[in-house]
Amino acid sequence: MSNFDYHIPALLNQTIDALQVKPDGVYIDATFGGGGHSAEILKRLDKKGRLVAFDQDSDALNNAFDDKRFVLFHANFRFIRNFLEYLKIDEVDGIIADLGISTHHIDIPERGFSFRFDAPLDMRMNTKQNIDAKYVVNNYQADDLKKVLKNYGELQNAHLIANAIVQNRKKESINSTFQLVELVKNFIPKNAEHKFLAKIFQAFRIEVNQEIENLKEFLMNVPQILKNKGRVAIISYHSLEDKLVKSFFKTGNFENDRNTDLYGNVIRKLNPINNKAIVPDENEILNNNRARSAKLRIAQKV
Description:
The protein is α/β, with parallel strands linked by helices. It is built from twelve helices and seven strands.
């Protein structure tokens, strides 16, 4: 039913089990992709159950299911409330989000997400948006490039890399992934090429797709649309995402500020179910190496 060639879902059973799916419930898959998580939810729903899915990548629309209980919207999950209003759904029983990029994005060279292929500098999840990685690399000022590389790539020498990009683009436009790789070669630490380039590409991908802003907006919407005792399960793949999810579940904000009532209880709308993130076991990593950095956090509406 689902398309595992498009994307192998990480922590599949743990995530769906965490939702405690009710057969007649209403659920949201905020990041449909290949439909792996959605397929498992549908298996647990009866004829009264409903599943609403979202994906901003038009390629994912090809994986949609022909099922009366299911609807897929071509949209970013930050707009989730608008679409629920359209469907006249006030609250849902559970929400799942599998953050980051899919196997499909990485393995299709022309999407420009991977440094393994020579391809146009694109990195857009929504191919209809105007800003791509080529625009960011060739038009951002040095200070802005530094912020992107430092904040989203967590690179210590971000200022040096930013300056090198600005100097190099004066000679010629930086249009391809291999041009970018060649440009940053001098900054690669010994025996850490893959990790370093992954951070470079991650930084530009997050900026192009406004991933952090979208995630924050999505998280702010979650308590508004979850029923009491409803659950949300989120899989993240890097520390920037995981910190936001962990902080929001724990404190109700992104600054990790503990606001308490008169009795010292933290004021929040969600209660974390697992204080420690759930991670894949050795078996899963062996079968799906890209799941190795996955972290699952679960919360329940108070």
